[in-house]
Design brief:
two-stranded parallel ribbon; 4 helices
């Protein structure tokens, strides 16, 4: 028994904590949250949506297209034009079936909205919605 107590007295006790397993866990969690995060592609422009009395919450993961007051059709900060809508929808629908949300400025011509709506349907969009703002 004397030998056992002698070893305890001679051993040095380290007061440091090894942080590397903790850092590994934090990085693994960070990678997990980055991979599982849903990235929404914004239109890249701000539009003045029309006011309505009733509205529904739409799915967060969707394909957004905006129509400016000048009649420009925007997606991801780029002017894709009315003719680019069908190709965009076809390309995105190959990856994943997403609802399409068209954000139309209140001052935009309705003819442009109808053309975009038609191109979205021709591109294979199953669900197309118009974004509005709820009047308070």
């Amino acid at each position: 028994m004397g030998k056992f107590s002698e070893n305890i007295e001679n051993d040095e006790v380290s007061g440091e904590v090894d942080m590397s397993p903790l850092i590994d866990c934090v990085f693994i969690l960070l990678i997990f949250f980055i991979v599982t995060t849903v990235f929404v592609k914004e239109t890249g422009v701000e539009v003045l949506r029309p006011l309505v009395q009733s509205a529904e919450k739409l799915e967060r993961n969707s394909l957004l297209i905006a129509i400016t007051p000048e009649g420009n059709v925007m997606h991801g900060g780029r002017d894709i034009g009315v003719n680019g809508v069908q190709a965009l929808i076809k390309r995105e629908m190959k990856k994943e079936t997403l609802p399409v949300i068209i954000q139309v400025d209140s001052n935009a011509k309705s003819s442009v909205m109808y053309k975009v709506l038609n191109e979205a349907k021709l591109g294979g969009a199953v669900k197309v919605n118009l974004a509005t703002k709820l009047a308070s």
